[in-house]
């Protein structure tokens, strides 16, 4: 009996050389693919939210416009860069505003960042697919909902072979169908 296996490769894909086997998958959330030898299937669209705990907002006046963020402790996801930048789009308008800052606290783990935000450490951005419950149950509140981050399409990416193994095809179909029920209220 032949065994099938799939590998989830955790970092966003750059080109075909990173995908070694027809059943290797990567997530891709950065716009169109540059390599035509790859196939992407969008499974969901979402945007990060700027959030803080009710406790933090009780002690600090909530920002109204992006430049107000300079008066707050900002927490950021980071892979080691010292300066950070958030670009906001005004809801229903074409207005954009970018805030460049040095975070009060950085972490390369969104679950840990969510924990720090729930503890009242400051304001930060979170993708809603990591921990949607704190926003649903009020432990985190969206800050400046009139100013939003851009949307992302999260896609499964694999080599563009004609003969895709059946487990890979089944997984693609399953992931596409399940995301709607797992994340029913994603902000877009």
UniProtKB/TrEMBL annotation:
The record, for InterPro entries, names: LysR-type_TF_proteobact-type, LysR_subst-bd
Enumerate the Pfam families for this protein.
LysR_substrate (PF03466)
* Sequence ranges assigned to domain LysR substrate-binding in this UniProt record: 30-177
Q: Give the GO biological process terms.
A: DNA-templated transcription
Q: Name one GO molecular function term.
A: sequence-specific DNA binding
Please report which protein family the annotation says this sequence is part of. Belongs to the LysR transcriptional regulatory family.
**Listed name of the protein:** LysR substrate-binding domain-containing protein
Query: What is the organism of origin for this protein?
Result: Methylobacterium tardum
Q: What is the lineage of its organism?
A: Bacteria, Pseudomonadati, Pseudomonadota, Alphaproteobacteria, Hyphomicrobiales
């Amino acid at each position: 009996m032949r065994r099938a296996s799939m590998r989830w490769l955790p970092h966003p894909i750059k080109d075909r050389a990173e995908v070694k086997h027809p059943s290797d998958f990567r997530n891709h959330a950065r716009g169109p693919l540059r390599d035509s030898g790859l196939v992407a299937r969008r499974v969901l669209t979402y945007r990060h939210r700027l959030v803080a705990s009710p406790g933090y907002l009780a002690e600090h006046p909530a920002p109204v416009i992006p430049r107000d963020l300079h008066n707050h402790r900002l927490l950021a996801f980071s892979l080691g860069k010292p300066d950070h930048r958030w670009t906001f789009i005004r809801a229903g308008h074409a207005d954009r505003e970018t805030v460049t800052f040095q975070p009060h606290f950085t972490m390369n783990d969104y679950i840990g960042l969510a924990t720090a935000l729930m503890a009242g450490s400051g304001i930060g951005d979170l993708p809603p697919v990591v921990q949607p419950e704190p926003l649903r149950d009020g432990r985190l509140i969206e800050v400046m909902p009139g100013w939003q981050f851009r949307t992302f399409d999260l896609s499964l990416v694999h080599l563009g072979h004609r003969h895709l193994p059946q487990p890979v095809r089944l997984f693609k179909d399953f992931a596409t169908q399940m995301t709607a029920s797992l994340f029913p209220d994603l902000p877009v």
